[in-house]
Design goal:
6-stranded antiparallel sheet; Jelly Rolls; 4-stranded antiparallel sheet
Length: 271
């Protein structure tokens, strides 16, 4: 591995994407402490070789690090490296208002600055793709880097089984039940279900259930001639009027309007 770095200044138009890459590179860090500092942006550092500690946060907590591992650095948070053997690392700097949403959704977690993975290839591949794009440059590289960043961020946060649990909750969502009932079906307490959902989506079980029901309702409105009252029951609502009010509030169109204007098929509305 040779040391190299590239830095980028996104244009006003690229900043409108909401997420942008500010730099990438690879380097070797020799054993010994590095200066402590706080960045003005987000950073991800993939450690492919070496071991030591990451000093992190205002209390200067030392987190054990051994490759392969991913380090997450947040803007304004103090950090410093403490390699005990030479570190081989790839890094990227990034920013934009989308980082706030990614944090709220649980993809960027300031409580877990060091992450290790059962299969590090899941992180190596998107990181390598990001490095290739930014080193090659070209007119489309800034947009391609955004896609690679999103791929890296989502891959890095999807390793603890929470995504699979949310998939199972979405499958149960069309059955009329309570959060206590869903938790029991999944073999969890309500607290465990809430925590797993927060880790995977940054949201609540109630929001996951609602979203799954609305998505299925949209598919039925677009792809069938079923009356709205029937669709309401199919997605777990016994009161069609309540379903229509809820659908309108969340989608911005009534079920009838969605069927006419919000889908490709544009089926005639039925009630």
């Amino acid at each position: 591995m040779s040391n190299w770095s590239s830095y980028f200044t996104p244009s006003p138009v690229h900043r409108q994407l909401g997420l942008f890459c500010l730099g990438t590179g690879e380097q070797r860090n020799p054993p010994g402490p590095t200066p402590e500092r706080a960045l003005g942006c987000h950073a991800a550092v993939f450690l492919s070789q070496g071991r030591g500690h990451l000093l992190h946060g205002p209390d200067r907590t030392l987190h054990e690090v051994h490759a392969p591992a991913l380090l997450w650095l947040f803007p304004g948070v103090l950090h410093g490296y403490r390699p005990t053997t030479e570190w081989h690392q790839s890094w990227t700097l990034f920013g934009g208002p989308a980082t706030g949403a990614l944090t709220a959704l649980g993809h960027l977690d300031p409580t877990q600055p060091v992450r290790r993975y059962a299969d590090p290839r899941a992180i190596e591949r998107p990181f390598a793709r990001l490095l290739r794009i930014t080193r090659a440059g070209g007119p489309a590289s800034a947009v391609q880097a955004v896609a690679a960043l999103l791929d890296l961020i989502t891959a890095a946060s999807a390793d603890d089984g929470s995504d699979e649990l949310v998939d199972r909750l979405e499958q149960l969502a069309l059955r009329s039940s309570s959060i206590h009932g869903y938790a029991a079906d999944l073999g969890l307490s309500v607290g465990e279900l809430r925590e797993a959902t927060r880790r995977a989506t940054g949201s609540t079980p109630q929001e996951v259930v609602l979203t799954a029901r609305l998505n299925e309702a949209k598919a039925l409105l677009a792809e069938s001639d079923l009356p709205v009252a029937t669709i309401a029951r199919e997605v777990g609502y016994d009161d069609p009027a309540y379903f229509s009010r809820l659908f309108s509030a969340r989608v911005g169109q009534s079920p009838r309007e969605f069927r006419r204007f919000g889908s490709v098929t544009g089926r005639k509305s039925s009630f």
